[in-house]
Amino acid sequence: MQRTVISLQQRGFRGGVRRAPPRKPDKHMHTRALISFLALALGAGAVFSPAGAEGALQPSLERRAALVHLVRQDCGSCHGLTLKGGLGPALLPETLADKEAASLEATILHGRPGTPMPPWQAFLTEAEARWIVEQLQKGFPDEIR
Amino acid sequence: MKSANKTVAQRLGIPLSRRREVGSAGMGGLPPTSQRVGVREAFLVVFLLSLSGCASVQPRGTGDLGLVVERGTGAVQVVETTGKTVLAEVEGLGDLSHASAVFSRDERYAYVFGRDGGLTKVDLLSRRVDRRVIQAGNSIGGAISTGGRLVAAANYTPGGVKFFDAATLAQVAEIPAIGADGKSSKVVGLVDAPGNRFVFTLFEAGEIWLVEMKDPTHPKVTKFAGIGREPYDAIITPDSRWYIAGLFGEDGLAVLDLWHPERGVKRVLKDYGKGGQKLPVFKMPHLEGWGFVGPYALLPAVGRHEVLVVDTEKWTLAGKILVAGQPVFVVGQPGSRRVWVNFAFPDNRTVQVIDAMEKKVVKTLHPGKAVLHLEFTPRGENAWVSARDSDKLVVYDTETFQVLKELPSSSPSGIFFTPRAHRTGW
């Protein structure tokens, strides 16, 4: 439980310094700042009611299993099943260590114009993208049962 | 004793570990229950002892054999297309995401190119790994020379092509893919061409290289630069004349006439896609399976729910066919005017069949979840489809679209049948 609280606080902090994705002019920046603020507020609230926050901010167990499968299999078609890279770059903790989480989340959700990386926002929520980035940065699980 | 049994059994083509799949390989009479194992093994020992001293491969052709990549487990299944069964599972091939295979000209051995740079020579008769080398850090595919003596592997890291003796897998040559930009490029679209030549494309540098390997120790490389931005894959036409690279970074195709390489690379269909908003591409299309039907080549559009019909005489667009998603493979059904198409995420449950002359979809199929590849039997009467997330292979009758058989397979991706051995550029 302690871990949940800490990670929520980290998220809240990250939400506060969130930037627009690099190389992409973003007309929704204000909206997103507002959303980030709300997420922060929600995150802060969640510290006091972690049970309720679990559903809202952390993907469900079932959904996490689906996300792991998606990353391994579908992201894996460019980044490799082991995430060591292919046509796309490696997504290992060491290669992502110096990258900012918010920018990685933005890359997942909005793609990277000028490269083959597509936007996944039609299939993922911001919270899910954030969860994927967290997992990638600490070493992506093989599967979740 | 047990390991000795296994070796002999494998030489005989009787896989001990996967007997559940074996329908007709000599052990099929007993039901696969655990109580029976002791009886079966006793039977096997007697059987083997009776053959001791003359153990050899049971006479069998390989023209109806094939190999299915089990993406998640680093294994391949050896399959046969006459009875439509899985004969064996061969393990220990490493990371097989995006793996592909070519075959020796006697159709006995498969060379499997793994993502992790592994090159594995699989013996389809003894159903085991014959040899294996790790030849690069990150690999994408390969080809085999006209005479079958050289196997070439295309690599991402470090970018380039390596050539191996097909018998021993000893490396005989290496060509680093340093483009005119002075940087190492990822290599895509490696194919073999007649005359012991190979052709491949440099993704970042945007170049096509034609390599003549008559003397494997002295490769002759002809480079064509400035062919277009981010060529992502390439194919050679069935008549071995045209090498065609698809471009991701801009519209159009780059075409090299292998009958007249001195004429250089030209761009065709360069107006295609201009002015339209491209959809994001959730999986790079493959060109390997381009359907060639009559005067047309059918190919996947990039980022659009369309199959393009190209007139191969004039290299002009002859039509567009709306389909269920972003096409990945567009494969011609041998002996037919039809092509079969599978799709990128999120439309990858669907396979569509197109009549190329009518330029329309005639059948929509749902073989399972995450259809990754399909392969026809050489004369086109059956189509084998891999459904990764349903963990199965589905075999269709191409005339009636009836499912003839479903075979369990662990996250199957590529399906490769041995007659590819005799097709240039496959």
Structural description of this entry:
The complex is a heterodimer of chains A (145) and B (426). Chain A is built from seven helices and no strands. By secondary structure, chain A is mainly α. Chain A has one domain (2-138): Cytochrome Bc1 Complex, Chain D, domain 2. The two termini of chain A are 20 Å apart. In chain A, helix 1 (2-16) packs antiparallel against helix 2 (29-48) and helix 6 crosses helix 7. Chain B is mainly beta. Chain B has a domain at 1-58. In chain B, a hairpin with a 7-residue loop joins strand 14 and strand 15 (220-224). The longest helix of chain B has 18 residues, at 34-51. Residues 1-37 and 45-55 of chain B have low confidence and may be disordered. Chains A and B meet through helix 4 of A and loops of B.
Feature tags:
heterodimer; A: 145 residues; mainly alpha; Cytochrome Bc1 Complex, Chain D, domain 2; 7 helices; B: 426 residues; mainly beta; 4-stranded antiparallel beta sheet; disordered N terminus
CATH superfamily label of chain A = Cytochrome c-like domain
Report the order of strands and helices of chain A. HHHHHHH
Average pLDDT of chain B, rounded to a whole number, is 86
Gyration radius of chain A, in Å: 15 Å
Secondary structure class of chain B reads: mainly beta
Question: Can you tell me the CATH class of chain A?
Answer: Mainly Alpha
Shape of chain A: globular
Number of helices of chain A: 7
DSSP summary, beta strand count of chain A: 0
Number of strands of chain B: 32
Q: Largest protein interface?
A: A-B, 18 and 28 residues
Report helical residue fraction of chain B.
Answer: under 10%
**Unreliable runs of chain A, pLDDT <50, ≥5 residues?**
1-27, 32-56
Looking at the chains present, what oligomeric state does this protein adopt?
heterodimer
Under CATH, the topology of chain A can be stated as Cytochrome Bc1 Complex, Chain D, domain 2
Short description:
Chain A contains seven helices and no strands. Chain A is mainly α and 145 residues long. In chain A, helix 1 (2-16) runs antiparallel to helix 2 (29-48), helix 2 (29-48) runs antiparallel to helix 3 and helix 6 packs across helix 7.
